[in-house]
Amino acid sequence: MSVTEILFFFLSALAVFSAVMVLVSKSPVHSVLWLIAVFFAISGHYVLLNAQFLAIVNLIVYAGAIMVLFLFVIMLMNLNAETEPQKHMWMKLAGVISGGCLLIILVSMVRQAVDLPGKTALMKEGNIGLIGNLGKALFSDYVVPFEITSVLFLSAMVGAVVIGKKE
Amino acid sequence: MPIQYYIYLCLTLFTIGIVGVLTRRNAIIVFMCIELMLNAVNLLLVAFSKMHHGAALVKDATSSVGIEGQLFVFFIMVVAAAEVSVGLAIIVMLYRNTHSVDINFLNRLKN
Amino acid sequence: MNAIIVSGLLGVIMMFSGIVLKNRSAITNLAAIGLLLLLIANILGTYGICTISINTHNMLRFEKFGMFFNSIAFAATLLYVLLSGRDLERTGVNTGEYYALIFFVLCGVSILSSFNGLLMLFLGIEILSIPLYILTGADKRNLRSNEASLKYFLMGSFSTGIMLMGITLIYGATGYFDLGHSPVVPSTGEQRATFLEVAGILLLFASMCFKVSAAPFHFWTPDVYDGAPSVFTSFMATVVKASGFIAFVRLFDRHGNELGPGPTWSLLLGFVIIATLLVGNITAVFQQSVKRMLAYSSIAQAGFMLFALYGNNDLAKEGILLYSVAYCLATIGIFAILIRMNDYTFDGFNGLAKTQPVLAITNTVFLLSLAGIPLTAGFFAKYYMLASAVKAGASLWLVIVAVIFAAVSVYYYFRVIQAMYFKDGDPATAPIGTGFKAMLILMAALIILFGIFPSMVLGAFYF
Amino acid sequence: MIPVLLISIPLVTGLVGFFLKEGATARGWALLSSLITLAVAIAGVFFYPRHQLNFDAAWLPDLGSRLTLQMDGMGKMLCLLTAISFPVIFIATYKNNYKNPGSFYALMLLSQAGLTGVFTAGDALLFYFFWELALIPVYFLCSLWGGEKRIAVTFKFFIYTFIGSLLMLTGILYVYFHTPDHSFSMQSFYHTQLEPGKASLAFWLFFLAFAIKMPVFPFHTWQPDTYEQSPTAVTMVLSGIMVKMGVFAVIRWLLPVFPDASTSFADIIIILSVIGMLYASLIAIRQDDIKRLIAYSSIAHIGLMSAAIFTHNATGLEGVMVQMFNHGINVIGLWIVADTIEQQLGTRKFSELGGLAQKAPALAILLVVMALANIALPLTNAFVGEFLMFNGLFQYNLWMAAIAGISVILAAAYTLNMVQKILYGSTTAVTANAGDLRPNVQWILVLLALLVIVLGIYPQPLIDLAKDTVAAVLGK
Amino acid sequence: MNKLALLVPLFPLIGFLVNGLGRKSLSKSAISVIGCGAILASFAISVMLFFDVKTNGGTVTTLFSFISADSFQVPFAFQIDQLSVIFLLIITGIGFLIHLYSSAYMHEEEPQHFGRYFAYLNLFVFSMLLLVMGANYVIMFIGWEGVGLCSYLLIGFWFKNDNYNYAAKKAFVMNRIGDLGFLLAVFWLLFKLGSASYSDVFANVSNLSSGDITAITILLFVGAMGKSAQIPLYTWLPDAMAGPTPVSALIHAATMVTAGIYMIARSNILYTMAPATQTLVAIVGLATAIFAATIALKQNDIKKVLAYSTVSQLGYMFLGLGVGAYTGAVFHVMTHAFFKALLFLGAGSVIHAMHHEQDIRRMGGLRRYMPITHITFLLACLAIAGIPPFSGFFSKDEILTAAYTQNPLYYYIGVAGALMTAFYMFRLYALTFLGGFRGTHEQEHHLHESPWQMTLPLIVLAVLSTLGGFLGIPEVFAADAHSLDHFLQPIFAESTRLAEHQHLGTSQEWLMMGGTTLAIVIVILLAVRRYRNYRAAETENTGVSKLLEHKWYVDELYDALIVNPLNALAGFFKNIVEKSGIDGLVNGAGRLVGYGSRQLRLLQSGQVGNYILVMVLAMVVFILIWFNDQNIMRFISKIF
Q: How many CB atoms lie under 10 A from the CB of residue C433?
């Protein structure tokens, strides 16, 4: 078992465990922290896959900006474990079972896929994940969507203003 | 790494996200679970991108095949950020009016 | 490209209009002028005159079908602003921002009508959706509006997640994000080589079903349409929904691919269509609020529009355009009248024919059109949908089920007509101006005109 | 040009009618319009050459549908019936006061346009259009000016028939896509070969629409309620002309389009029709309401028509066509009597009536004439039609004819029952002060009675009119 | 002469129109002159036609094409031949007398109703003339139904009385039952031969299979059963006595009820070729003759007795037809028309005098007050009883003799019936005219002989009843003296040729005649003796008497077996099947939608979690559908 593999499995286990902890934590703050742990694990995967740019962006945008925003909101609302009443047991059960069904059925499809075995994700090698290559592509072939995302941001901004503004 | 591993991992994370959406009542946590789903997608995209890249490299050493996957991830992150700003604004607005973020109490609209 | 750029720019202009213009009706007028400009720009673009051309690297593809739909959407929005602009001003203080958001939505509409790849589809849908989350919650003091907004947002984000997973799986299977390469047309059941792709397509399909509120992904629709301020419901239920269908149809278009829709695909769509028709029509029957009834009716109409997907031929494309026209005209009209009513229940309409005969008669035309009665545009809309399905060799049973549900739909549409004409009451309405009435009459006349000569719409599409 | 005029005169005058506010003006306008239409119809049927009776223009080129209007023998006959009926109805109900008279008469004229359109359409899609155009004004007429339970009843009627017509539309679509030239024209439909299984499904889609309209047992339950609740002028349109739409449509659009299916399902339909005849007749015996009795009687008569159609027998078909015309005349006459009684005495219950023969001899005589026509007494017009239809049925199956014949006996029973309960016996509290017919009603009834007798003695012109259609329908 | 035939029905039609339309403006005398005059004119022309036919034979006149359908032609044509001219004479002749009689009998009516009465009567004559003059079965059917209508109108003439109306309706409906049979027979003929004209039908009989002929004849006979009041469709006739008495005389004795006889006589070739039907006709006729006679024995209403007597006599006529004695049957029609019309008119005279009292138990001794009526009535009774040389003797004897040659049993039963006839007729006679008056004093005070308009017809008919028999003198009395037989010979020639006729020995025939006559005389004496000094019995009848008095409870039986079940069925249809069944299904579909709506609404719980749960499950289902498409398709195709 190579180092890559060990790292892969470790990060995977961490990601899954943290994700589960996001669910089961009573306190929203804990959930946020566990989610950040998931993001770190995923960033680790990005590094393994030699997608350094995304690894960094992931950390900055998700773990850094978004999760902080979440934390702020949670703090602002002063939410704690007691404020969230539990769902009915059967509802939880139904959620888990249906989620499990979806997982099983998707996994079974993947397992049946005849063209997948033998295909591997290139680890460490390959330089498409480097910022230079990505940037080149982004500002040449992908310039239109890039510009269009500005509309998205504008609308999000207007939206936040509309919602947040006091009347 | 065999691509299946990534698929299984990402599907698992994705499903955990879905289960979170289904089982939690706190709107913020639900929203976080959705973010988790998006992250699972992102990871899978990167893995696929590397898979295609690897396949293309065999034929052409200078190939940039697979880069579109990583760019897609970039766009997803952008959209997610925008969504978060709007989403949190909505949640805060609701909290201001009801002093609760419990989605189970959202049932004025039904039938 | 004209449409995307101009609508984006107009959005920015409207954003700042609130600062410059203090008079709200001036903002509305500005928006109307902007929409007119947008419409003109798009029509010019359609005919290749004064086109801003940008190398989109095959991200967008401008076809007559999409461009024409843009015109329909812009024209419908223009009508909508002219009819309901005054009501929009009353919704809150941020009139300029609302219009800005509407223009951003139209930008999304333009992208969805010309996307050429899953990335642009995704972006278009997000640009379309995010402003809507906000517009839904525009009535900030109203808990129903808040609730609708949050529900819409949560479920919309969830469906985005599903869509992204679908796109990812397709990418994993084919290595491409654009329609040209990726055989996104579902293959037949026998060709199971690319299970990954199938799973992706199904997830993508599910998320698109969500956007067009096809059962069983329709649940957000009644709550959101009901909770949102009526002015915005009108917009969401018409232009936005129609553009969702255009995206759906374009996505699953045969697109020169040899792989036609196979039996499995028909089967799946058949289930969705029947479920949608069932849920929409049957649930609408017992509603007490006209607004909520219209929400369910929009689901029911979606069931019919899904036939365009089922048919997936020329007739279907023509039909979905005609359907958009008919449906937008009628629904915008009904909502414009509904907004002026003080009481949204059916009883609130009692005796309208006596106090406001013009409203009653035009409303009747709109309702008849929605019900698909001949001599209204709605008839030919439904006709094309069914015809495309029959032409595609659909099982007659499916069509029969559809027409039976169409008959059920008569029940709830006619309840409004009955209330207006056959029952006594003194419905209170907001003041109604002559211009408003004239607009309504114009729209009703258009509906009847298209009901007699549908070729007028379709002729414009062809030439 | 004639059919265009026949449709457009009532259409245009009807639309104008909406803007008339005064009762007298609206009435006069409607009457004038209907009389002009009648003149045109008479001219068209009797004096104009054949090519004047056809019209063809482009309508929806990309759909394969044209604005084709034509009048063959059956078309002529039914157009004539429509054109005669409307002035008759207007005159007979001239004194009835309606709120919103302008709209009332306008809707009546619109329905006339729709009916004429149905009878002349030579294009399936156009046919469907007129089919609905005829229905919608009637829905509004019933719901706005009807009896107490009008809203629910007419709504049921509307939805019921609407389901039928939508199914028919499905069938039309289906056949359309199998026409050789992708056209809705009647000729293309006639020349379409469908595979048997699909043809039978499409056949039933068509038939259901027509069966609901006619109505054929067991799709008839909308009918008595609707007839009862509608204002009588509308009931006359409904039962005098509108039910003929169903019969007409079967002859024009069912038999020639699905020759094989209609042969193979003939047994079922004939059996249903015959059951319906007996069933409706039996129910009619127990009715206590003039309108409901006439309604059930009408179901029985229509049952015979539908049975006769499916015998695929030329004689029977001629009978059906003759009877379409005659039944229209007769049933309108009966409704006029029913309306007079209701307007004058405020009741339609037999149990409250009686002895009117003493008080209103003119009404008595005319009612008896109409009643005799209803039971198809020889030398009344209905006899000829029923004679031919029974003849056709007999040639199809002796036992069917014999069983169906029982309804002839039952018809005598319930019709005479009605006559007796209304006219004979001693007067009741309600009828003690009854007066006789108003002049307008009386003269219209006399006119109808004359038609009844003249067509009963000399029916040959009607039979001759029917012949070319029969040949076309069975000739395929 | 052809055109002349048209005038025969035309006059009554004009009379109908004039009297009908002018009933409010014309005076009673004008009405009666028009009414009677029209018939008289017809009679005159009928006489001319008679002589014409006698010299030139029959003719067919086509007016216009009545129905010219795809597969057959029905011309509106009249056939004047020996058979129809005889009937023309009877109809117009007796019709005229009865019209004349009516002008006095109905004089109390208001002018309006008086006019209505004559209009109906004229219309009846018109229809009856159509019936006999028609040159095909369809025209005959027109007349057939037309007389039914007039019968209906006249029975219910006094429409204020609901019982009369019921009787009228019953008559019409029962006739319709028969008419259906007639109609089916016509269809059969049209189907097989493409024509219903007598000439075509009789010429092409050979093209029909024996099954066809049997069926057609039976169906025609069903029609005759209705019109001519044979078992089982006879019950309307006694009830029809609700009409004015002259009507009973004209319609329910002399003319309309003999239409069945006419029809079978007209179709004699068909019947001759269908021996099974003939047997049926004979048996039904005989059974009716006996059955009605038994009922007549115990009836107390003067008109009811005559009504059952009519039924019984009609039975004899059918017996005659059944055994192939067509001439005899027609002969009996004729003589019966004379004496039965006379009886009814006489009864009418009595009723008129008694102020509408019809119960013979309250009469008696009327001979003192009403001599002409008495004498003529007595003559008629003798005629019907079959005492030589009155007319009834000859005609009845001819039938019975013919019956003997077919089957002696027919003869014996027939004679038994004749004895009963004699008995009840003389019971009637004795109760009415003999003994002392049993009515109220007031009635006695008003008893009077009727005016000349009434007595004149009585006298004329009495003469005819007495002498009419000499038209058909049997072979045994004088060879070749049967003038009616000679006259009708062309009509029945074919049948006579086909059927083998045995002839009885002369001595046997004498013996039978003598024996029968003797027996009848004895019965008459018995009856007169028994009822001459009748006193109303206090005790109720029991046993057979009660059964007879209640007409064997046939009406009740019909009610229980047919009318009531049918009514119940109709009620069941109306209240249960229609409301809950069919309409219930229709409304049920609507309610199902409503129910579904209420249930489906619950799915819309308002909970985001539930919504998303359904979405997730739906995705699972989508994938499952994708992988099981073929199974699902197979399943679906199995359903449809």
A: 9
Mutating which of A97, A101, A104 best tests the E interface, going by the most E Cβ atoms within 10 A?
A: A101
CA dihedral for D12, D13, D17, D20, sign (positive or negative): positive
Question: Does the distance separating the beta carbons of C407 and D159 come in below 8 Å?
Answer: yes
Beta strands in E426-469 (DSSP E): none
Q: Long-range contacts of range C452-458, CB-CB < 8 Å, 24 or more positions apart?
A: C452/C375, C453/D60, C454/C322, C454/C377, C454/C380, C454/C384, C454/D60, C454/D63, C455/D60, C455/D61, C455/D62, C455/D63, C457/C321, C457/C322, C457/C325, C458/C318, C458/C321, C458/C322, C458/D62
Residue C189 has pLDDT above 60, yes or no: no
Distances (CA, A) of E115 to A36, E19, E30, E111: 112, 5, 9, 6
Q: Does B58 touch chain C (CB under 8 A)?
A: no
CA distance C325 to chain D (A): 18
Does residue B98 sit in helix, strand or coil? Answer: helix
Average pLDDT over residues E115-135: 90
**C191 pLDDT higher than 50:** no
Least confident of A133-147, C144-158, D49-63, D142-156: D49-63
Task: Please give the average per-residue pLDDT across A32-54, as a whole number.
Answer: 92
Cross-chain residue pair D283–E67, CB shorter than 8 Å: no
Residues of chain D predicted below pLDDT 70: 476
| Dihedral sign from CA coordinates of D331, D334, D336, D338 | negative
Residue ranges of domains in chain A: 1-81, 130-167
Query: The domain spanning residue B50 has which CATH number?
Result: 1.10.287.3510
Which whole number is the average pLDDT over E373-392? 87
pLDDT-based confidence at residue C335 (cuts at 50, 70, 90):
very high
Say whether residue B37 is in contact with chain C using an 8 A CB cutoff: yes
> What CATH code would you report for A1-81?
1.20.120.1200
Over residues C66-73, mean pLDDT: 92
Contact of A155 with chain C, judged by CB distance below 8 Å, is answered with yes
Q: Say whether A165 and C94 touch across the interface (CB within 8 A).
A: yes
Q: What is the 3-state secondary structure (H, E, C) of E21-49?
A: HCCCCCCHHHHHHHHHHHHHHHHHHHHHH
Residues of C in contact with A159 (CB under 8 A): 101, 130-131, 133-134
The 8-class DSSP code of residue E499 comes to S
Mean pLDDT, residues A137-152 taken together = 90
3-class SS of residue D67: strand
Q: What percent of chain E has pLDDT over 70?
A: 98
The 3-state DSSP class for residue B102 equals strand
What is the pLDDT at residue E578? 85
Chain C: list its partners (3+ Cβ pairs within 8 Å).
A, B, D, E
Interface B:C, ≥3 CB–CB pairs < 8 Å: yes
Token pair 């106090």 is found at C355
Q: Is E638 on the interface with C (CB under 8 A)?
A: no
Which chain D residue shows the shortest CA-CA distance from E143?
Answer: D378
- The residues spanned by each domain of chain D are 1-264, 265-476
Q: For all residues of chain E together, what is the average pLDDT? A: 86
Give per-residue pLDDT as tens, E455-514: 888 898 898 888 888 887 877 777 777 888 888 888 888 888 887 766 777 788 888 888
ipTM: 0.90
Look at E633 and C206 and tell me if their CB atoms are within 8 Å: no
Task: Supply φ then ψ for residue E255, to 5 degrees.
Answer: -115, -70
Ranked by mean pLDDT, which of C45-49, D353-357, D448-452, E570-574 comes out on top? D448-452
Mean pLDDT of E131-149: 91
- List E residues 581-620 in contact with B (Cβ-Cβ < 8 A): 601-602, 604-609, 612-613, 616
Q: Do C189 and E630 touch (CB under 8 A)?
A: yes
On whether any CB of chain E is under 8 Å from the CB of D156, the answer is: yes
